[in-house]
Structures are given as C-alpha cells and as structure tokens.
Write a structure and sequence with these properties.
Elements: H1 3-16, H2 35-44, E1 53-54, H3 55-61, H4 69-77, E2 90-91, H5 105-115
Parallel strand pairs: 1-2
Helix pairs in contact: 3-4
C-alpha cells in the first residue's frame, strides 16, 4: 500500500481500538459532490472526537437557514467515506440519534459515539402516564 493509505488504515485501527483519532489530516477526493455538500463535509470533518452537533446547527454554521438541515442530512446519508467524514457525530434535532447509512445503522452510530465517550439519552416518551 502507498504510505498514506497505510497511515489511514492504521488510524482506522486506532479508532476502533478506542484511541482518540483525528482523520482531518487525510486528503479526500470529493469530486462529483455538489459544492454545498463539499462545504458540509468540510464542516463535519472539524467535529472533534467525543463531540456532536446537529443537522440544523451544521447548516447554521454554514450560513444557511434551518431548511438546509435536510440538505445536511442528505449529505450525511450520501457520505462517501463515513468515519473519515465523521457523520456519526451529527445528530437529529433534540439530540436524537438520527440515521446512519453504514452497516448496523443507528446501533453502529450509537456504539461509535459511546466509544468516544458521548452519552446519547434515550428519547423522552411522547406521553406521560398520569398514574391513575
């Protein structure tokens, strides 16, 4: 393998062994992605280990309105290099886990976040019992 590929593979192994890893040093070829998706991916790459943001907050960071949260969600769903672009750190509104397009879906996303020390609370029940 070329040295940069071997370095990336070693970083992935470090990550899954629970060691804090920063993938932002790896160059990515994102040709074929729209300009806004590229901006979303660049912003997502800045989310550090053990931190999260929401689709809406990421859209706002890019200067877009709340309606762009859906675009952020679409970009995360089409992420060509999950983990290197840490889409698992982007949550739905209210801190809900949201989707994840990698194998295992939301369970994998939750496991990766827990490995990074992020506690995602279970959703509040829609109704409360009055205790009658």
């Amino acid at each position: 393998s070329p040295p940069r590929v071997a370095e990336a593979v070693a970083a992935v192994k470090d990550y899954f062994e629970g060691r804090e890893t920063d993938f932002s040093r790896f160059d990515l070829d994102l040709q074929g992605q729209g300009a806004f998706f590229e901006k979303i991916y660049q912003a997502a790459r800045k989310i550090p280990w053990g931190s999260t943001t929401t689709y809406g907050a990421l859209a706002k960071e890019l200067g877009a309105g709340p309606e762009a949260a859906r675009d952020v969600g679409q970009a995360m769903a089409k992420n060509p290099v999950a983990l290197i672009i840490p889409c698992h750190r982007v949550l739905a509104a209210g801190g809900k886990i949201g989707g994840f397009s990698a194998p295992g879906g939301s369970s994998t996303k939750l496991g990766m976040l827990e490995m990074e020390g992020v506690k995602v609370a279970p959703p509040e029940p829609a109704q409360q019992s009055l205790g009658f």
